[in-house]
TrEMBL record:
Annotated compartments: Nucleus
Keyword Mitochondrion on entry: no
GO molecular function: DNA-binding transcription factor activity; transcription cis-regulatory region binding
Protein name: DNA, SC103
Sorted UniProt keywords: Membrane, Nucleus, Transmembrane, Transmembrane helix
Amino acid sequence: MVVMDDKYNGWRYLILSFALSDKMVMDAVLAVSTFHLSHKSGGTLPVRPDKLYAKAILGLQNRSSLDEYDMLTRQSIFVAIITLLVGVMVNGSSDFPILFHMLQSALDAVGGEGGLGNAHAQESFDCLHYNGNLHPDHALTFYLNAYLRQQAYDIYLERATMGPHGTLDPNKIEQFKETLVMFPEGSLGEHSLVWPTFIAASESLKDEHRLYFKQFLEKQYHRNGFLNLQQALKLLDKIWARSSYTNWPALLPEPRVFIM
């Protein structure tokens, strides 16, 4: 999920360009769009998003032998899979593991990212700092976003390493909350902090922290309507209902949804 919607937004200049010239990618884009619109309209659209989704999946199945295709077709296959991954965020579907496996298999088939002719992989990987340089007026926002992600990464890694019986420094959760508070209501990039906030919430023990993180995630759900957030909130309730030493990283695969 992009932090800033500008001319560098790959969803606009890359995904939509592919969709105009490739029916499979267009089906994927339309599926994601109609899933989103269907939820917002209460399911009153004249077209069924699941049919468009099925068409995109069929298109991928028909192009399963990546080594037979040229670079442009390979790229369109990856674009379609990535677009459908956004779709399972929107509709909260449990298809995430299937699509992610398709993405991994496709990468293996072309010999990794190099098989896609990607000359900007490093810039993309470090996109927050990269965008901070592109938009110096928002450099602090990008810095805070990256800082929160790093904190969440450290929290997850420490809990996954120590298992259910270790004790994480509670100040790390307070530090995360204090950093998140620095984001004004509706500020740039707030929507992209779902995953870091979910991680901090999973580790939190204090009621005040849990309430704050839950309200933040609920706010993002009411703003974008992505059903994966409902699944994330249900999983948090399950984690919090257990003992203080729950090995919550082991529970993350259970919902089979893409929380981001």
